[in-house]
Amino acid sequence: MLRQVSRPILAAIVVFSLSGFTIVWDKPASEAGSKAAPQTDEARMAAYADANWQDKVVPVIEAHLVPLAKLRGELAGGADKAGAAYGLRPEGEANPWNFAVSGEGKIVKAKLKSRAAKLEVDTDDDGKGDVTIQLGPVIRGTALRDAMPFIDFTDFRDQIEFAKLANALNDVAHAHLSLPESDPTGQTARFEGVFTLRGDAGTIELVPTKLSIGG
Amino acid sequence: MTMTRRNFVSAFAVAACLLASPALAEDKGLMAIITPSHDNPFFKAEAVGAEKRAKDLGYDTIVLVHDDDPNKQSEMFDTAIARGAKAIILDNAGADASVAPVQRAKDAGIPSFLIDREIKESGIAVSQIVSNNYQGAQLGAEKFVELMGEEGPYVELVGREADTNAGIRSAGYHDIIDQYPDMKMVAQQSANWSQTEAYEKMESILQANPKIKGVISGNDTMAMGAWAALEAAGRTDVILVGFDGSNDVRDSIVKGGIKATVLQPAYRQAQLAVEQADQYLTSGSTGQQEKQLMDCVLIDESNAKALETFALSE
């Protein structure tokens, strides 16, 4: 039975069944005369991020959302304990925890005219910023990617493609934000998003997935 | 196949290595440890870390060096297969070229556990444990931008093109640096991870661009070469940041020379690969995904003294 299946089709079946996602070639790679898929890493990862955002990424965040104030209390008992209860991270030694959090606070500083625009928010009423909300368009880090249980590094060609995936997810997060047009300093920010816990959580660099400003 | 003089010599060296390895194998059998040249202390640390852990766990070992030559690496796989190795710990000689030998070992029933560098296929090796080069490069680039005061002409030294790590580090550097419009890259050249090549490249770059303010390097051996060239030219004012966390660069940081580097936990990574090999051989599974990332740590004057042989003491 299997013998009757042509080789390109068989290859497509193997690719389809082995990997967590599907790559659709316009024509078999062998015919394209190149080993490379007919898209750049960037374009392919952007398509992957778009395709999975609503159905897979958002539900993971919603399911793991923890109020920031509550998480801070839990973190006092140790990162691994809090991580086991609320965190998300890939398997492997010494991978940092990622958390999906919700919170609100007063915007104490805003940097809007930048490729890496950001808001600093005071969420514990001490007058100092303790959460940095990354507005982009350049959003740093791999928190969104590394928080997703359905994303496995093994399914990706190499670190370069995998890095592009992190950036692509950050780009989609950015695209879903409506950004303040004037200086929002002094107003209240309500947010949901993901961050990677590094060190003592003194300052959190959040990738926002929801943001509203006002009041 | 004609045997070149070089092949003959390396085959001879392999034979010598085999004879020199302890005849008294313990119960668990042989583990082959294959890395690039130990001239780079990074690879030596890997080999030493893996060998020590393997012996601790009851394996006999052979340690082989492929010198980044895929043909040599291929011969070493044949040797490991012929010797009936139970597992192979590998820092490979090229992301594409290494797929075939790892597959050959797999077909012979020998699992491979990769460290430091990836290969372009999954499902062939049991583990691929690599440093989170992208995260590490971003750490190095952030420090570099801060030291540069967010502005000025700089140079990037890139690693060997066939190595994925060269590309990913460069991408990590630029994803940070390119956010600062006043940071101007005036030259970007590959020195193939080599200290001597970096010295020569840095010399000529300096002649063409005497006003450079900083250099960011894809690894520490190239950083050492570049620093020697800068010293020779009386340009120790140039800000230099490396990648790896070698003892040489640590010493330079402590003396106020090179400003920073990024530690890859090479020693631990090699030990972890051996532990996963042991677990796989004894239980049939590592309990981990094939491809695993390990985070890197920024090393500067604040923590350089705690660094020893690619590990940071607590």
From TrEMBL, chain A:
SUPFAM superfamilies: TM0957-like
InterPro entries named among the record's database cross-references: TM0957-like_sf, UCP033535_lipo
Alphabetical list of Pfam families matching this protein: DUF2291
Protein's UniProt name: DUF2291 family protein
Organism lineage: Bacteria, Pseudomonadati, Pseudomonadota, Alphaproteobacteria, Hyphomicrobiales
From TrEMBL, chain B:
A Pfam family hit: Peripla_BP_4
Compartments, record wording: Cell envelope
GO CC field: cell envelope
Coiled-coil stretches: none
Coarse class of the protein's main subcellular location: other
Keywords: Signal
GO molecular function: carbohydrate binding
Protein family membership: Belongs to the bacterial solute-binding protein 2 family.
Protein name (Swiss-Prot/TrEMBL): D-ribose ABC transporter substrate-binding protein
